[in-house]
Structure formats: C-alpha cells, structure tokens
Amino acid sequence: MINGITSTNDSNLGQSKDGNTMYTHTGLSSLFSEVRPPYSSFGFDEQEKEINDAEYQRDSRHNYIRNGADGDQIHESPDALLAYELNQLSFKERGVLENDIHGIQPECIKETPELLRGSLKQLSIELDSIPEKNKTAYEFSQKTFPKTTYVNTDDFRLIFLRCDRFDARKAAQRIVGYLDLILLCFGEQGLEQDIRVSDLDERSEQLLKMGQFQILPSRDHSGRRILGNFSFAAHHRIQAVDPITRLKVGVCMMMVLARDNIDVQNKGLVGIFWAHHFRMEDLNKRSIAITKMIPCMPVRFCSLHVCLTNVNNLAKMANAMYLYAIGPDYRKRTRVHLGSAVECVYALQTFGIQAHDIPINTTTGKRKTQNHQKWVELQQKRDGAIAENKSFLAIECPKQNDILFGRGWPKMGHPGNVLFRNLIQTRLEDYNNSRSKGEKTTMAYSIVLELKENRARFLREDEINGGWIEVSNELARKKVSIAFRCFRRAETKSNKPLASSAAKRKSNQIDPVLSLCQSWKANSMIGINGEQDEGSSAFLDMDGSSNNSIRSNCNV
User: What is the C-alpha end-to-end distance of the chain, expressed in Å?
Assistant: First the structure.
C-alpha cells in the first residue's frame, strides 16, 4: 500500500511507486461474471480480503489489456496503456489536453447564428443517413410522436452538437445512442417527454437520495460543474442495484445539468470517481453501466479523477476496470489519486476543486449528503412548477462572477465576491471624497450597473424554496454602500492605532543628553557619598579630557 499520494502523470505512467504491476485484463466483463465470492452482508472481514487477493493473484498472471486502436499491442498495466496512448499525441496536442484538464485556457467555439443554422441542418442530414436498423429509438420517436417529441427541437439537438464540438456526424451517432438508452431505461414515454428527476421510479429515486451520484454545489476555478460518483461498500443497498437503475440516475442527472445550461454544454463537466471498500461482485455492474453510458452521454467530461482511499489489490482491479471501460478518449483525461481521504482531497484542490464542497468527511471517511439533499429537493420543486406551468426563478448554482449575500468564508471566498471587494477598494477614495449623500448613492448605483453589464448578478439564498434568487437593484445598491462603509471603518481603525502610538512615542521622547545622564547615574559610576566621581570616564571626551558641559547638564 502506498502511504503517500500518487497521481498519474508523465513521470510515473509505467508502474506504481512500489514497483508492483497493476492488474489488467483483456475481457473484464467475462472475468467479473465468473467471480462470485461468498461475501458477508456487513463490511469486509479477513476471509473476504484473502478471497479478493487470491482472485487477483490468480487472474493477473494471464490477463492483459489490449489496446483498442492497435490489436497487436499488448500492455501489462493500465498505466502502460495510458502511457502508450499519450505518447501517440504530439507535443501541441498534449499541451492542449493538459490545459483542458486543469481548466487553463479552455477551448471555446464562437457560436454565430450561421454556425448554429448550418450545424442543425447538417445534423438532420446525418440523422437521415443512418440506417433504420441502427436507430430504432429515433425512428420510433419520429413515427409515434412526430409533433410532440422533444427530439426534433433545436435546444435538444444543440446539446449534442456542443458536446461534440459541432461535429454533426459524431453528434448524430450520440443522439441515436442516447435515445436507445432512454428507450431501454424509461420506455416509450421517455421519447416523447424529456426526462426529469420526477420521472425516476421508486428504486431509482432511492438510489438518487442515497448520494452515490452527487452534483457538487460549486464549480471549479474555471467555472465548470462537477459530477461525482461516490461509492462505498458500507451502503449495502447500493451494491445490489442493477445496471439499469444506475443508468437511469446517471443519465438523468447529466441531462438535468445540460438542459437550459449553455455553460455546461460548452465548458463540459469535471468527473470524480471516489471508491472506498467496494466489492468485486459489484465491478461487473459498474463496468456494464459505464460502457453503455460513455458513448451516448449528453455532455462531455473535460477531466476525470479516480480517488482510491484503500489501495489494495481490489482497488487496483477497480482502477483497471474503470480505465478500460471509459475508452481511449476519456482515458487520456483521467488522473488517478491514491492515498488517504485527506491526500485525495489535497490532490483535487490542485485541479481547482474546492475542498469544502467535496462530500467526504476526511476524519471518518463517510459520505456527506446534506448539499445533495438540497439539490434533490430543488429539482423536485422545479419539476412541480413546470408541471403546473408556473415560473421557477431559483438558481441552482451561482456563476463565478456572481456576488453572493451572506456571511462565512465560503461566500467571502467566492470569486465574484473577491472581485467585488477589489472594486470597492479601488473606488473607496472617490466615495470618501463625495460631498453629499446623493452623490454616494449615485456612485453605488453606478457600480451595480457596471457589474451587471459584465454579467454579474447579486444573489441571496432562498430559505423557502432553496437555491439562489437574484435581488433587486435597490438591495444590490445597499450592499455596495455597506461595503464602502465597512472598508472606510476598517481603514479608520487601521490608521488610529498608528496615530496614537506615534503620539505616545512623541510624549515619551526625552532629551538625548538628559537620557544619557540618567543612564549614567543608574550605573556604578555614582560615588560612595552620592557625588559624581570627577575622574570617571563618563565625563571624559574621546581624547581623555574632562567635559564639564556634560557634567553641568546632568545636574539640571
């Protein structure tokens, strides 16, 4: 087991630090279907650990990962496979990939009306060119719900075009695969009405509320949303969930994120796979769900992070399964973090993910669901409002340039609040020089309008319905005025101690000659009868002669 944290990068892609080759396999599905060890119903005991290690040692002797692009290339570990695929990239391609993973200068396509119209037209041509036998669900939606299906709307098709960077052929294949998955999971009604959280059945809703899949309440430093899969063996009911139920929850949450959210469609998502004490019998179900979902996801993942907090043979097997199931495109964007929960959280922070929003208690290692429950309740209220044709103005997640009302360092540290305080500080001198209250009010309003022109919003939490709501210009103006007064008060406080200390030093200032004489009197140069010894060196100049002026001054 590795004590320190280890992340996959260019320098250690061949093998792990301890020199052990990680488990690999050419056909993981066949292996997982054969392995059914007799697990107990609670936790992991020593017998289960011995069984897992024995299965790992038995199968790792003759199983390898074969590269999908080159059938003759065999790799003995997932790290070796990843290193091989990265070495096929040019220096420029690797630089672009690393920047996209870290959220540095993300690639953005400038959308114009001509681009949107041309892409939608080309997408319709590509959909028509696909043989009917390969697009069963799509053809069913066109024949059964020709006028009411959401599949023909521009908003739905633009989701997939943005996901594939306006490549119409890839987007057409993705739409066909997505609709096949929807038909498999939700039936015919899923092709007429776009899926929402309220469409989940009882079993899927139970899995959703457990918090295995969570959308973090914040964004990374580049403004991308974060979707996490937090799997724990302690939640035994989750382990018994079939792949279809997992697919329902996963695809529903991704569509909820992508729908009506152009930022998510353009920027993509950041994915976290956090595994801790899972069972081998569950790996087959996860492999099936991941393999089916990857080709037809409505949004793309810019980066994927695998966090393994219990680094044993089974964890290495899960790592191999995950890297193999996601395919070569996403495998290049995956970083694996090994170590304790604290070490994994620190590693995620280096990629711009805020630690306080990761739903893991680093002390106990348990999963937190408080923010997730708020998200589920908000989505249920939104679906209820849509069903009743009512407006729902709550904002689920603030953007990077929004200014948040409230106290606490998470709000104070929000990027929009940091920029807001910097702006107030730069305008503080002009505000203090304003002659009347009306001028100060006008200046505060001008700052509000300036921020809103830059697409900033003033948001406060909605305690009744959840989420965030945008406040009026008057409330925003009051926040600006309060911020000015707080900065002015802080500036006054910081200058007051300096002034008082300077006055104190001035009042205590003594004539340097008198001070010197007082220090001499305190020394042993005082005579036995209390009179100054005239031969003392204290009253001698540098040439050794007596200095009567100093003696006379000391007697004052």
Answer: 81
What tens digit of pLDDT does each residue of 400-409 get?
A: 999 999 888 8
H-type helices in 332-427, by residue range?
Answer: 341-349, 370-387, 409-412, 415-426
Model pLDDT, residue 554? 38
| Pairing status of strand 6-7 against strand 334-338 | antiparallel
Both 367 and 313 in a single domain?
A: yes
Q: How far apart are CA 321 and CA 325, in angstroms?
A: 6
Q: Would residue 145 count as lying in a domain?
A: no
Please, what is the average pLDDT of the chain?
78
Task: State whether residue 138 is helix, strand or coil.
Answer: helix
Instruction: Let me know whether 497 and 520 are in one domain.
Output: no
What distance lies between CA 400 and its chain's CA centroid? Answer: 12
Alpha-carbon distance 283 to 295, whole Å? 19
Q: Are residues 481 and 526 in the same domain?
A: no
CA distance 414 to 398: 9
Assign 62 to helix, strand or coil: coil
Q: Around Cβ 273, how many Cβ atoms within 10 Å?
A: 21
- Cβ contact 238:231 at 8 Å: yes
**What residue numbers bound the domain in which 297 lies?**
6-88+195-377
3-state secondary structure of 223: coil
- Residue 17, classed as helix, strand or coil, is coil
Q: Which pLDDT belongs to residue 127?
A: 95
pTM greater than the 0.85 cutoff: no
* Tally of domains in the chain: 3
Give me the percent of the chain exceeding a pLDDT of 90: 46
Residue 498 sits in the same domain as residue 519: no
The residue among 320, 293, 294 whose CA lies nearest residue 306 is: 320
Confidence tier at 208 by pLDDT (50, 70, 90):
very high
Residue 302: strand, helix, or coil: strand
Report the distance separating Cα 478 and Cα 459, nearest Å. Answer: 13
Give φ, ψ of 471 to 5 degrees: -90, 170
- Separation of alpha carbons 156 and 141, rounded Å: 14
Per-residue pLDDT tens digits for 492-549? 877 765 445 555 555 555 454 444 445 444 444 434 344 444 444 444 443 444 444 4
Q: Decide if 348 contacts 358 (C-beta within 8 A).
A: yes
Which amino acid makes up residue 210? M
Helices 154-163/113-129 angle, 10° precision = 90
Selection from 64-78, 154-168, 193-207, 273-287 with the highest mean pLDDT: 154-168
* Strands 74-75, 65-66: pairing kind: antiparallel
Report how far Cα 35 is from the mean position of its chain's Cα atoms. 35
